[in-house]
Amino acid sequence: MRIGIFGGTFDPVHMGHLIIAEQCRTQAGLDQVWFVPSAHPPHKAGQGVTRFDQRCDMIELAIAGHPAFRVERIEQHLPPPSYTAETLAELQRRQPGDEFFLLMGSDGLPDLPGWYEPQRVIERAGLVVVPRPGVMLWTAERLATALGVPAAAVRMRFVACPMIEIASRELRRAVADGLSVRYLVPRAVEEYLNDRKLYARK
To answer: Is residue 23 within 8 Å of 159, Cβ to Cβ?
Structure first.
């Protein structure tokens, strides 16, 4: 099975996430897309992040009814911090017969060589990349050079995707300011935020 791994904080999940996941699924021929919320994001150490179970709940609500989407809570059970290399290694250990692909934006490619053990990441997963406006596209050859590996080691393809510029941090700020986020997040997620007063000013 070809499985897309869509990692992130998802605080909260929004329509841009869902559009990216669906376009990557269809264009890259993926059988499933697994949303993998980061339990202990290393780049947000010391910052306030909504509880893991609440972020997972919102994703469950957002993807309800899509048979090819699911939430994978694996990082809840892995030692912190949450590194993609370790997550992929554990997924591969659990499902050795499956092929994994990491979904990411083109703006993340220049950062990948600075990740924790990036060579292990590309060894265990192909890259399905969504171009971002105003960002120079890195080729597989350029990424391979930055990683110090042969070009053939990088399996990468780009997908065309509508550019939906929604930022989770802006949604959190909008909710805190009492503004509407309707049509920016799925209706069920909006209701979840309202019911639990998530992101409301204390």
So the answer is: yes
